[in-house]
Design brief:
By secondary structure, this protein is of the alpha/beta class. It has helices at about 15-25, 45-55, 65-80, 100-110, 150-155, 170-180, 205-220, 225-245, 245-250, 255-270, 275-285, 295-300; strands at about 5-10, 35-40, 60, 85, 90-95, 110-115, 120, 135-140, 145-150, 185, 190-195. Helix 6 (about 170-180) runs parallel beside helix 7 (about 205-220), helix 7 (about 205-220) packs antiparallel against helix 8 (about 225-245) and helix 7 packs parallel to helix 10 (about 255-270).
Length: about 300
């Protein structure tokens, strides 16, 4: 049976970006079965705009901020469709028939948990004129601004880690899906336009959250005794990145170290280690930007092989 497909969008005080995105979504043909929008503690008139302009779509409102991760988790759990398309408030599908393309993709591959799609993004100007994004392949991460998620796989994997609040939820979920025998795929037959608004973005703050959450994920998922070496590598890599950005970034590295330590007890209380062979396979997917089906069958005895 053909799966049903809906769309979720989390937004925080970016009404103008959201207006453009929802306008593009309204032009899809056919339309998604449902659209869920979460206004995360918005104070810029977002709620009023959505209610007046798109009254048939589902608006969820967080009076106090739950962050992008909490907002997306809530929408996925409340969704009624088999497949949930996740977009940012400044990203939307390129192809008008994007919805049936996604449904066909998941109908043909019953092991597919997440499909991510190439983005024509202002963040990477060279992508705006890129004609070929290469072959589709298995990957160890995806971006919530351009992803399709099988809802029952998401629920079975435990959903996003709420303690992260913002960033790194995607690799952490991808790891758990892969370890459970699901597939995460970079699918180049469909495309997303991502305008990548600078509003509500702070590069240094995002780096600190990324580094902290990445290390929390290691502590929760990496088996003993390997987590010691993996954690040391991640700390060194993040510090090296800060060093490349300059002295202002370097002297602020201890901020995320302290934040990591403050949340470590909660993190350890949620520790559910993954088998090392699966964890190592996932790390290789991250390092080498994924593998085709043929490469996976040749190089791995892994959950992504049929």
């Amino acid at each position: 049976m053909t799966p049903t497909c809906g769309i979720i969008i989390a937004t925080h005080n970016r009404k103008e970006d959201l207006q453009t995105t929802l306008g593009e979504i309204s032009r899809l043909s056919p339309q998604p079965k449902e659209v869920l929008i979460c206004a995360d503690a918005c104070t810029d008139g977002t709620e009023e705009f959505v209610r007046q302009t798109y009254p048939a779509w589902h608006l969820l409102v967080n009076k106090t901020s739950q962050g992008s991760i909490g907002s997306r988790d809530m929408m996925i759990r409340q969704a009624s469709t088999d497949i949930v398309l996740s977009f940012d408030d400044d990203s939307h599908p390129v192809e008008p028939d994007f919805i049936p393309g996604v449904c066909e993709l998941f109908e043909k591959n019953h092991k597919l948990a997440v499909a991510s799609f190439p983005q024509y993004s202002n963040e990477f100007p060279e992508s705006l004129s890129q004609g070929d994004f290469g072959p589709s392949r298995f990957v160890g991460f995806y971006a919530s601004s351009s992803a399709a998620i099988r809802r029952n796989a998401y629920i079975d994997a435990g959903g996003y880690a709420s303690l992260f609040h913002h960033v790194y939820e995607e690799p952490d979920l991808a790891l758990r899906c892969i370890a459970a025998g699901w597939q995460v795929r970079y699918e180049t037959s469909l495309h997303v336009r991502h305008f990548y608004s600078g509003l509500q973005r702070n590069e240094l703050r995002v780096h600190q959250l990324q580094a902290r959450n990445e290390l929390w994920s290691v502590m929760m998922r990496c088996p003993s005794p390997y987590f010691i070496a993996v954690a040391a590598f991640r700390i060194a890599r993040q510090f090296n990145y800060a060093r490349q950005r300059g002295i202002r970034w370097m002297i602020q590295e201890p901020k995320w170290w302290l934040s990591f330590l403050a949340g470590l007890p909660l993190c350890l209380s949620q520790r559910t280690p993954i088998r090392w062979d699966y964890y190592r396979h996932w790390m290789k997917l991250l390092r080498e930007s994924g593998f085709t089906q043929e490469a996976c069958e040749k190089n791995f005895k892994s959950p992504v092989s049929p």
